[in-house]
Write a structure and sequence with these properties.
Elements: H1 3-7, H2 12-17, H3 26-33, H4 38-52, H5 65-111, H6 115-119, H7 121-150, H8 157-192, H9 211-216, H10 233-268, H11 276-299, H12 307-327, H13 340-360, H14 367-397, H15 409-433, H16 441-471, H17 476-505
Length: about 500
């Protein structure tokens, strides 16, 4: 309504003569029809003012109570659609993550038997470190691009190309540094960790060469042969070349895939925050492990030649050239200095998680198998929540309305929690059907309860960590996910230990 009509209710006749037919609003005409009821019209304006102070602050002057009811109904419908999209988009992604974790473990079982892994122990030791760091890089990429997509930065083709090419170049720099650090860590571990005994006891029928044993044991999986020399410069160059080449190839392939996935999500109206982070974590492990096994098996035939060293030098030069590309890209030039501390902090936290696994895996039946999902799935749920929160914060900063009537944080947290429960039940059912895990029904019920606790803790940590970093001017897309992922691995393992302890105290035989 215009100010004249609202401010001068008793002069409607003179106002009408001063307005042409195009300038009269619908509500004004309705008021003029009831001009002989001045008191009624005054009451109607009062009603308008009350409606304008709706509790959500989103309702304008509606003109009638029925309009207000219809507006609230539309708002409810919009929020229900948002919740439905979370379920529809995140549930298949989380299920894929669970399957990917099992496939990664099975692949590790086969890769560990290849000649390169047997010949150079540090190649196997580097796997947990490099998977952790590379997975965090891919999740950071997905979070950054998800935010860019949701606030509209990818809608312009030129801006989209600049953002994507800049992030892919940045990923190559990060992958080179990460692989070099992982190689150094593996060589240090190889020099200080003693050789294991020639034979190791089986665990639930799982031998020392099995997936579960390799996932939980840091010491060398294969004893050194009599007369075999300790690792030196030649072995170090072999490890560095294999690590850098595999991570760079993984970053190129998986980075391009994630960029394509996020652009397609934006094009077809899906929220990449619900899809991309778990996919990045799952495929990051699987693809990097596959490439590391393949590259090391190929380079092992050239271990005593200059080829591995030349390869390292070429890859380092490529990384340096990518540094200049990043520095000239206004969209990502500042990111090259960010995010390193949480990456390496997450590596330290993961070492603590390995100690927990190493301590309790041989004490409880089925502990390593359950540890795969109770740590991986809550972390994936938390990564979705971190990405959504980060997008909302960036959108608010840029005054961008990403979603109208976005559901509250508590509703999103509750929805994500409910989504994971059927996935956990499906996982336990598969283990029981295939005979991989035989447990009493009481243990299954209690384990589901502790799994829900792990998911709840993951969501709470995601919320607190994202807001804490944002309040201190740290971009959650660069800093939150590595710390959250590593922390949840540790917390989930401790909750699983508590679950086994509780069931044991109740007298249940496992």
């Amino acid at each position: 309504m215009n100010g004249k009509t609202e401010g001068s209710p008793n002069n409607s006749g003179s106002d009408l003569t001063n307005l042409d037919s195009d300038g009269i609003e619908l509500d004004t005409l309705e008021d003029l029809e009831a001009s002989h009821l001045g008191d009624l019209r005054t009451t109607q304006y009062s009603l308008h003012e009350d409606i304008a102070h709706d509790e959500d602050g989103d309702v304008a002057l509606l003109g009638s109570a029925s309009s207000l009811e219809e507006q609230r109904k539309n708002q409810y419908t919009s929020r229900w659609r948002q919740v439905s999209s979370i379920v529809i988009e995140s549930a298949p992604t989380l299920l894929l993550t669970t399957i990917g974790l099992l496939l990664t473990g099975e692949l590790l079982d086969h890769v560990s038997r290849w000649n390169a892994m047997r010949a150079i122990n540090e190649l196997l030791m580097i796997i947990p470190v490099i998977l952790n760091l590379q997975g965090n890089l891919e999740m950071n990429l997905s979070a950054r691009l998800g935010t860019a997509a949701n606030i509209g930065n990818l809608d312009d083709r030129n801006a989209m190309r600049k953002i994507i090419y800049g992030n892919l170049a940045l990923l190559q720099v990060q992958a080179t540094v990460v692989a070099s650090v992982a190689a150094c860590v593996s060589m240090i571990l190889g020099s200080i960790i003693p050789d294991p005994p020639l034979s190791t006891p089986s665990l639930d029928g799982v031998t020392s060469n099995s997936t579960m044993f390799l996932n939980i044991r840091a010491p060398r999986p294969f004893p050194a042969k009599p007369g075999q020399s300790q690792s030196g410069l030649v072995e170090f160059i072999m490890v560095v070349s294999s690590a850098i080449l595999s991570t760079c190839l993984s970053s190129m392939l998986l980075g391009s895939f994630m960029c394509t996935l996020i652009v397609l999500c934006r094009h077809f109206g899906y929220d990449p925050d619900n899809i991309a982070p778990p996919v990045a974590s799952c495929l990051g492990d699987l693809v990097t492990l596959c490439l590391l096994g393949t590259v090391s098996s190929a380079l092992i035939y050239f271990v005593n030649t200059p080829l591995p060293l030349l390869l390292v030098l070429c890859l380092v030069l490529i990384a340096i050239s990518c540094v200049f590309v990043v520095r000239r890209n206004s969209e990502v030039k500042d990111l090259i200095w960010q995010g390193w501390l949480p990456l390496f902090g997450a590596m330290v936290i993961s070492s603590a998680t390995g100690i927990v696994l190493d301590t309790f895996a041989s004490r409880y039946r089925g502990f390593p198998l359950l540890a795969i999902v109770i740590s991986g799935l809550p972390g994936s749920v938390g990564s979705i929540f971190v990405s959504r929160l980060s997008t909302a914060l960036h959108a608010a900063e840029h005054s961008t309305h990403v979603h109208e009537h976005e559901p509250s944080k508590k509703l999103v947290m509750f929805t994500l929690l409910l989504v994971t429960i059927p996935i956990q039940i499906i996982f336990l059912t598969i283990l029981h059907v295939f005979g991989w895990l035989k447990s009493p029904i009481l243990f299954i019920i209690i384990s589901i309860f502790f799994f829900c606790c792990a998911v709840a803790v993951s969501l709470i940590i995601a919320d607190a960590l994202t807001n804490y970093l944002w309040a201190r001017s740290f971009d959650p897309d660069m800093y939150a996910l590595p710390i959250h992922s590593a922390t949840m691995d540790l917390v989930a393992q401790l909750l699983l230990v508590l679950c086994f302890q509780l069931v044991s105290l109740m007298g249940v035989q496992l």
